[in-house]
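Aim 2, interim progress. The first record below pairs a target sequence with its structure tokens.
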Amino acid sequence: MNSRRWKSLPAAIALLLLAGTAAAQAPGGGGMQNPGGGGMQPPAGAPSQGAPGAQGAPGAGQPGMEPGGSEQGMMRQMVDHDFVKKTLENNDVQVRLSQMAEQKAASPDVKQFSQQMVTIHNQLNQQLAPVAKHLDVSQPKKPSKKEKKQLAKLQALSGPAFESAYLQAMANEQEQSLKEFKDESKASQNPALQQTARQDEAVLSQHFAILKKIAQAHNVPIEAKGKK
């Protein structure tokens, strides 16, 4: 591999990640803490995703059932409940995987990426907390059986083998997360959650692009297929 390209990669990754984190924490980028606020803001340079349901737009209120508990309101609530539940579960997996990578990864770029993933997905959990409470969705308190098996497998690895398995596992999780956000942006009839999903998808896409660059630098094949 070209050594000059390798040395410059971590700096480029850091710039993209820090830009995304700073934008998400900037005033007005409070995500689902304010469902009408449009979610996490895309990193600098990310394409605009349109403005339906943006802050101050009519109908950009709290998610939930329509007045009178109509069938349409109940269906909306089921769609949003499923989205929030799956997102919290996916965040939990990525945080646990990345916490392990913080300790076990030897390559600076992989370690830096794992540290940022812990920060970003914990932040997303905090942003989801109000709407999760409204929809009666609980944050996962412990790993699922599938997740325990995955973590045990990675725990037994070290060096390049661990980093390869970590990057591949994160690719699967991030692909699944992107799918959920895309589905929500199309299926939800709540303008606030729909806009949040659309804008946060841009941020998640940036993370996935960074992961693929790191994997390419380490000659790790990414064949993300999502969760079964």
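The second target in this work package is listed in the same format:
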Amino acid sequence: MAFDLKMTRVLKIVALFETFKGILALFAGAGMFFMTRHSIQLSLGQLVKHLHLDPEQGFSKIIIDAAGNLTDNRIRIIFIFAVLYALMRFVEAYGLWFVRRWAEWFALISGCVYLPIELIELAKGFTWLKIALVVINIVVVLYMAFVLKHNEKAKMLKKHLEPL
């Protein structure tokens, strides 16, 4: 019983982390929606430098260049995707907070989707931010796999003990 309580506490921490990612996405989407194209590109350039990423290479360059080609319609589409992403994170957080099995699967799968991208970016060059993101994601994925495995074992044990 105490073990299940600890698992629930950790799930709530993951739920709070997902909520934070959703709020961050909403702020980023809203920020872009209310900024001009030029100020978006400048802000992204400053953010890339602040994170000690190379603005002339890789994903950073792609994002900064894409920001220079934004139109009002593209900004609206990005805003809509940011809202949808935030809603997805909030739904996941809700499910994890209330210990729903579907949310555990959702967290595992969504974490696995980002791992290859994060690892590719990490292979291009190490920064503390990249390392932290990969480590956090791996920890969450491994923990969700552990929770799902534990719940499956508990379910099977309960099924075998029912006739007794």
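The longest helix spans residues 128-161. This observation will shape the mutagenesis plan for the next reporting period.
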